[in-house]
Amino acid sequence: MNEVPLTHILFVSTALFFIGMYGLFTRRNLITMLMSIELLLNSVNINFVAFNKYLYPDKLDGVFFAIFIITIAAAEAAVAIAIVINLYRSHKSIDVEDAAELKF
Asked: Rounded to whole angstroms, how far apart are CA atoms 79 and 100?
């Protein structure tokens, strides 16, 4: 079986990154913004694992970085969902425009 070239993996990672950026900048719903951030982090994980496989196939540094990012993303998602639930309870909406008054 032939290996997948690095350029194909980078293309998928770049597409995921820009889909995440588009979702982050165009959506006003906090849940979809959180999902877009997760897409960004997953594209970075793909890059870490791909470059680790092609540059240093005998080491696992890229995999360890990816696992660390997944752990941080899980903690970030838990905190963000708690904030979104609290925002919904107080404002009955999860729109970003309604959350603007929280910064004062």
From this structure: 18
Domain presence at residue 63: yes
6 and 52 in contact (C-beta within 8 Å)? Answer: no
- What is the number of domains present in the chain? 1
Minimal CA–CA distance to 17: which of 60, 58, 48, 53? 48
Number of neighbours of residue 70 by Cβ within 10 angstroms:
13
The contacts of residue 56 (CB under 8 Å, 6+ apart) are 62
Asked whether residue 25 is assigned to any structural domain, the reply reads yes
pLDDT in tens, 72-83: 999 999 998 898
Cβ partners under 8 Å of residue 19, min gap 6: 36, 39
Please check whether residue 97 lies inside any domain of the structure: no
Single pTM value for the model: 0.82
